[in-house]
Amino acid sequence: METRKVQVTGGSTYTVSIPKSWATENDVGAGTEVEFYPDGDSLFLTPRTDEERTRGTLDITDLRGQELTRAVTTMYVSGFDVIVLEGSEIAAEQRSTIREVVQSLVGLEVLEETRDRVVIRDLLDSSELSIHNAVTRMRLISLSMLADAITALSELDHDLARDVIGRDDDLDRLWLVVSRIFRATLRTPKAAEELGLPREECFDYHSSARQLERVGDHATKIAYLTLSFEEPLPETVIAAIEDLHEDAVEVIDSAMDALLEDDTDAAGRQANVARAGVRAIDERVRAIDELLRDLDPARAQLLGLVVDSVLRSADYGGNIAETALQKAAPTP
After folding, report:
1. Quick one: what percent of the chain has pLDDT higher than 90?
2. Which residues have CB under 8 Å from 246's CB, separation 6+?
3. 169 near 145, Cβ under 8 Å?
4. pTM of the model
5. CA angle at 135 for the pair 125 and 251, rounded to the nearest 5°
6. Angle formed by the axes of helices 199-226 and 158-187, to 10°?
7. CA-to-CA distance for 147 and 142, rounded, in angstroms?
8. Alpha-carbon torsion, ordered 156, 160, 161, 165, to 10 deg
9. pLDDT digits over 282-317, tens only?
10. Residue 320 in contact with residue 255, Cβ under 8 Å?
11. Which GO terms describe its biological process (predicted)?
């Protein structure tokens, strides 16, 4: 760390020198324009650039299948606006994988395609993206998935269960958008300024979005388990699971309301209500476990996994409540 003393020139202008090593590394010299971004008691400085698009290149010669999918997804989440995929000769299998990835990510489109390279571009304007809207949408999708998964189980509606499984892709797309926005705020203060949110608040949204994505995963798990049942399930067990689901939804809703609440006192109260709800759910789970002991071991095991998924969803709501409490706490 280096320190500098602030000086006054001309009687009213405050000046401070910048480290030469930093200036050299970032091509800053006489006449270079820089941008300042205030953030509380901090002031961020960055060289001004005319480039509006961040370009990244990746050699995919040895990448296939899931490895290629993960590589392209990582480039997207990392914030590259133009992704250039290169190889000595891109195979048809690789092109098919690339197209599937592009279709699964929000805003991407294949811009150019030749024998040895594929260029992908993000068509969305980052400044127009809203992390608040994305997380709010994730809340709606994850809770509707969980509700429909429980309904599919109680009615043994396999078509509805498959529909829940299909909706998980929509939730994953939004999660990747939130991750992309959040990483952009870490990389440059300009992104946070365009969002109109402090970076700490973006972190809170990102943390909560991760919990909602996991709720969707467990809804999907319940849907898959539903496909394993062919005969009607005991009404007493189904009723108990439905009550457990209602309690879990109440926890998640209270936690999300607390996260989105501007009044810090109200947010703290709502978050504590959500945390108390998680503790109360544990008692209900123990009662359901007693009911499962009277069932066939194979069915009891599958239903036990369903109960565990609902319980974990409530736990994720508790995690969101913890984030809301931290958000509502005084800033050091």
Report:
1. 49
2. none
3. no
4. 0.83
5. 175
6. 160
7. 9
8. 180
9. 888 888 888 888 888 888 999 999 999 999 999 999
10. yes
11. intracellular phosphate ion homeostasis; negative regulation of phosphate metabolic process
